[in-house]
Amino acid sequence: MAQEEKAASPQIGVKVALDETVTLGDVSITFVKVLEDSRCPKYVNCMWAGEVRVEVAIQEKGKEATMHEVTLGATDAVSKNKTFYKKEGYFIELMAVNPYPENEKEMGPYSLLIGEGGN
Predict the structure, then answer these.
(1) Distance (Å, whole) CA 113 – CA 14
(2) How far apart are CA 67 and CA 88, in angstroms?
(3) How many other CB atoms are found less than 10 A from the CB of residue 81?
(4) Are 35 and 54 within 8 A, CB to CB?
(5) Which residues pair with 111 in a beta bridge?
(6) Which of 11-15, 24-28, 41-45, 107-111 has the lowest mean pLDDT?
(7) Candidate CATH numbers 2.60.98, 1.20.120, 1.10.3210, 2.30.110; the one for domain 12-118
(8) Cα separation of 16 and 14, whole Å?
């Protein structure tokens, strides 16, 4: 008899540029601003990996927009509010903030990679 396993729902990544709004289903997400970026640059040995904090505005169909602060760290323990929208088995979460800092390299314009999925 085959072992029963729950299959993980696929996640679809969507890129959101600074000041851009994307709509996923009945939810609109706007990348408002970067609050802090203390991530350790690539190829640098740091005592702490750092984190990046961003602010996003979430608007559900017909409702007023709400602001959400999302923190993404090197580990899930550091990440806070990574899943910033959840309703009836559906969720939207922050997957990445780009570009990732590089030693002595000018940072380009920021963008978010957000994912949606369900269980």
Answers:
(1) 5
(2) 21
(3) 14
(4) yes
(5) 17, 98
(6) 11-15
(7) 2.60.98
(8) 6
Longest distance between any two alpha carbons in the chain, whole Å = 57
Q: Which one-letter amino acid corresponds to residue 49?
A: A
Q: Is 77 in contact with 67 (CB distance < 8 Å)?
A: no
Q: What percent of the chain shows pLDDT beyond 90?
A: 43
Res 8: pLDDT: 47
pTM of this prediction?
A: 0.82
Both tokens assigned to 75 = 């580990």
Strand ranges (DSSP E) for the chain? 12-17, 21-24, 27-37, 51-60, 66-73, 83-87, 90-98, 111-118
- Provide the residue ranges of all domains of the chain, joining segments of one domain with +: 12-118
